[in-house]
């Protein structure tokens, strides 16, 4: 279920290259996409390099969850030894089959397919240049622009150089996969903002947004793709090319805080371990005398366990999450949101009545959900509720592929912590500090913290600084 009070990832990508002769790369991609479902539930698609006619790709895309989009029969039709797949999250209004991926295109050298996660910041200028040169765009997505750039130079220069050229032209946060008839190419932006990793499955290679998807197909994680790196996989093996030496890693810290699955490992840090550590640091930064520590399930669980361990306060459950609630789109009315939450999270009266509780969650974005949770815990008889958030206040929008609300909708954008506490109705409220977040990320400073600090790895898209990141979600 899409929580309207969380930041949302935009996409997951998964590609597989098997030695020629193999026909079912799409099977591996299917299971990989199921494991990446948390990154996007709007649409899904897979392209295979052997279509109904010679020189064509097979492609199946649809709206909905991966398991809803693909029947056995649909999957069997996507043949070939190479396949790329995509799961997409989109903002309201951008949800249509036309924008579903992979996107495909044709060049004189044959077909191409692209699966892309992220957001470009120089779209306007590139689109203008391409349109002046005669390109026609079918969608309003950054992904089509990247495919167009690659297709234009692939004819003359070959795919690898075409990807290299496209990466010199585009600026922003991205990880993408390109499939040709005989190769699979993966690329990560020069700051490595969006994740991409490499795995092996026997003689096959895998490229995926997260390592949990490599585990899902019983593959072996090899390494993360480096910032500014292109990997080309074909019959000759795997080749790695760096587009520039001037890279500065700035992986999105929200991947570790919330987006990624806790069983993933991104850029050398286990996501679960990081979340638990952030709870431990929070316990030291903001202790509280309570009967037990509880999590907002599931997002707050690892940090709550860390808080409990560090403080020596027992861990307990205050709410049960209904895991059978289906996918729901962001509901526009407050009443619809209230009912969604009512069905999704229910307080356990027996563990709450008369108790003082520390309640841990990973983040607060708008504050609506947390306010309702606190109200419901009070109704269920909680004596004191002390909210602890395992990330700093989200005070700025994201311009790099994460769906953030308008700045004025971010509860922490212009309110001090005390005012946020008053709004949500807790007895106390504390956030992890930015240095605390850095400590949880093993003391490394190679992570983007833009939505907390307002300091971004690169300039925001032209004209959007005063507007909203919602406008920036035109990609994917
Ligand atoms: S601004 Fe926030 S959500 Fe966006 S890339 Fe940076 S850390 Fe991630």
Structure description:
It contains 17 helices and 23 strands. It folds into two domains: 11-250, Glutamine Phosphoribosylpyrophosphate, subunit 1, domain 1 (4-Layer Sandwich), CATH 3.60.20; 274-443, Rossmann fold (3-Layer(aba) Sandwich). α4 (123-132) crosses α5, α5 (142-157) crosses α6 (159-169) and α9 crosses α10. The two termini are 20 Å apart. Mean pLDDT is 90; it is low at 327-332 and 466-476. The chain is an alpha+beta fold. Iron/sulfur cluster binds at residues 7, 193, 252-254, 398, 400, 402, 448-451. Iron/sulfur cluster is lined by residues 7, 193, 252-254, 398, 400, 402, 448-451.
SSE topology sketch:
Elements: E1 11-17, H1 25-35, E2 43-50, E3 58-63, H2 66-69, H3 72-77, E4 79-88, E5 103-107, E6 110-120, H4 123-132, H5 142-157, H6 159-169, E7 172-179, E8 184-188, E9 197-201, E10 204-208, H7 211-216, E11 220-224, E12 229-234, E13 237-242, E14 251-252, H8 253-259, E15 265-266, E16 269-270, H9 271-285, E17 292-295, H10 301-311, E18 319-321, H11 334-344, E19 345-347, H12 349-352, E20 356-361, H13 368-379, E21 384-389, H14 417-424, E22 428-431, H15 434-440, E23 447-448, H16 450-453, H17 469-472
Parallel strand pairs: 14-23, 17-20, 20-21, 21-22
Antiparallel strand pairs: 1-4, 1-10, 2-3, 2-4, 5-6, 6-7, 7-8, 8-12, 9-10, 9-11, 12-13, 15-16, 18-19
The structure holds iron/sulfur cluster.
């Amino acid at each position: 279920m899409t929580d309207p009070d969380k930041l949302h990832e935009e996409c997951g990508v998964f590609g597989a290259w098997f030695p020629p002769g193999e026909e079912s790369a799409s099977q591996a991609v299917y299971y990989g996409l199921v494991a990446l479902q948390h990154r996007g539930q709007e649409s899904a698609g897979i392209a295979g390099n052997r279509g109904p006619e010679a020189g064509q790709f097979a492609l199946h895309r649809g709206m909905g969850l991966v398991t809803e989009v693909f029947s056995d029969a649909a999957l069997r039709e996507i043949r070939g030894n190479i396949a790329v797949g995509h799961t997409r999250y989109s903002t309201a209004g951008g949800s249509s089959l036309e924008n579903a991926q992979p996107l495909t295109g044709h060049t004189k050298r044959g077909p191409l397919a692209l699966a892309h996660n992220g957001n470009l910041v120089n779209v306007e200028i590139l689109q203008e240049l391409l349109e002046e040169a005669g390109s026609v765009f079918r969608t309003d997505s950054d992904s089509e622009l990247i495919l167009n750039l690659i297709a234009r130079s692939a004819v003359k220069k070959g795919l690898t150089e075409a990807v290299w050229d496209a990466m010199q032209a585009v600026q922003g946060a991205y990880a993408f996969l390109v499939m040709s008839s005989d190769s699979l190419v993966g690329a990560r932006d020069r700051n490595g903002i969006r994740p991409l990793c490499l795995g092996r499955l026997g003689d096959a290679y895998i490229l995926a947004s997260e390592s949990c998807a490599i585990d899902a197909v019983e593959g072996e994680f090899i390494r993360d793709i480096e910032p500014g790196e292109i990997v080309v996989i074909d019959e000759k093996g795997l080749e790695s090319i760096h587009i520039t030496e001037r890279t500065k890693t700035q992986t999105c810290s929200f991947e570790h805080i919330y987006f990624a699955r806790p069983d993933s490992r991104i850029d050398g840090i286990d996501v679960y371990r990081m979340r638990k550590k952030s709870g431990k640091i929070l316990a030291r930064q903001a202790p509280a005398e309570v009967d037990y520590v509880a999590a907002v399930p599931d997002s707050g669980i690892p940090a709550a366990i860390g808080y409990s361990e560090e403080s020596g306060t027992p861990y307990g459950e205050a709410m049960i999450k209904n895991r059978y609630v289906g996918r729901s789109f962001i509901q526009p009315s407050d009443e619809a949101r209230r009912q969604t939450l009512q069905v999704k999270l229910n307080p356990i009266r027996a563990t709450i009545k008369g108790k003082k509780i520390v309640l841990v969650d990973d983040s607060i974005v708008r504050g609506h959900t947390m306010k309702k949770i606190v109200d419901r815990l009070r109704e269920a008889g909680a004596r004191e509720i002390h909210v602890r958030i395992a990330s700093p206040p989200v005070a700025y929008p994201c311009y790099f592929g994460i769906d953030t609300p308008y700045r004025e909708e971010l509860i922490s954008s212009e309110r001090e912590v005390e005012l946020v506490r008053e709004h949500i109705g807790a007895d106390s409220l504390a956030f992890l500090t930015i240095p605390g977040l850095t400590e949880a990320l093993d003391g490394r400073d190679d992570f983007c913290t833009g939505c907390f600090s307002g300091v971004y790895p690169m300039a925001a898209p032209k004209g959007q600084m005063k507007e909203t990141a919602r406008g920036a979600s035109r990609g994917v």
